[in-house]
């Protein structure tokens, strides 16, 4: 066990220096590399190189803050905050918060700050407790710690015996960031499906889903009032011109009696307001796409783009639990089987599924691994975060359970292939905006009728419509892999 004493009686200067060197391998390594380099090239060349590096870093930060933050900023910030903020004030604040103990010789023992990790919003302090302490000792004074470090809030995680992490929320980017609702688009270009605008991310950038390549199926989890409905309406609004043109067909299952999406009934190709009809809609959905699969397969079509002949079939299921948990065994069984089939088989032929649930548990979403994109809005329990986003994502800073209830629409979004989640907020679609949306889609002049006979699909002249996307690529392709920074696992561990 590490010695957490402030002053170690038996310490000699040599031992103290030795201990410092062992404890700071990065600082020692950097000095060991830089010193000979400076000697070799001369201090002027070294200074010029350092200056150029700082300039390059600053330009990168100005031009693309998110990637700078991902690859360099968070490391620098963690390092800087560790030394300039946490380490400098550690003893003072811990003594002030009464978080010290003493041993039999009267030496004062304090918890040890092992490392600091930093994301855009949160700092995490990894701490070894002092002898005689338990996590509750820290848990009882979290507010005092947060205030002392000028953080908005603090929370505690127990990592193991004698080890805890304290998460400090430094900022709330959405406090001051307006999230305007994009005006209803006119363009019916299919490429717009790759840029379904919904809101902004934590860096203030516009945020969009890519229904063509990356966000093929999306799972949304959020407690009641978290803003699931607003995300789904936002998505419908963003693809409205394509719905109007018949390039996107929406199959809506709203098992809450149509309370949430009944207002948009006219937008939908199929609409179900209860579980029995919901199952029928899914049955029909799968039979349409099965037929399309066979037709396109027989024609040897490999390249496809959604079109009026072979539309993107967007199945939206709000309150998934009503179809997979709180319903009869027969409905549940068949619905789960068909949904899993749809999630695995129809990506290449234009099947997209968006499902929303309050509880992302295994009972409700046994097929959650089949959604390449997961979005956690405010959830009721910490365990729901990893259930929705994946194992260990919460520990990396996706604290969806800590999204305040006065911030509906805020969420953490995690794509397959990305290690960390992105904090985003959807714009709010009010009732008037919904009315405007329905008006746009159903107004005279609609290019093709929203409800066309189902048989059209199986016999559609697919070659005309599906012209540019590689089917096999889509089917084989896992959603686009994002290149990671080498040493991603270690990168936030500073000093
Ligand atoms: N993006 C947003 N920005 C601002 N306010 C929002 C946003 N989304 C939702 N709200 C507010 O939160 C309320 C609840 O949102 P919503 O109905 O979308 O929640 P929900 O997750 O669908 O809840 P439930 O599970 O009960 O259906 C809305 O009436 C609105 O006032
Ligand atoms: Mg809802």
UniProtKB/TrEMBL annotation:
Supply the InterPro entries for this chain. Answer: FtsK/SpoIIIE/SftA (IPR050206), FtsK_dom (IPR002543), P-loop_NTPase (IPR027417)
**Positions of the UniProt region annotated as Disordered:** 449-495
Q: Where is the FtsK domain?
A: 204-386
Coiled-coil segments, which residues?
Answer: none
- Superkingdom of this protein's organism: Bacteria
This chain belongs to which protein, by name? FtsK/SpoIIIE domain-containing protein
Q: Which PANTHER family match?
A: DNA TRANSLOCASE FTSK, SPORULATION PROTEIN RELATED
Q: Which keywords accompany this UniProt record?
A: ATP-binding, Nucleotide-binding
Q: Where is the composition biased (Acidic residues)?
A: 467-495
Pfam families, per the entry: FtsK_SpoIIIE
> What phylogenetic lineage does the species belong to?
Bacteria, Bacillati, Actinomycetota, Actinomycetes, Pseudonocardiales
Task: Give residues annotated as binding ATP.
Answer: 222-229
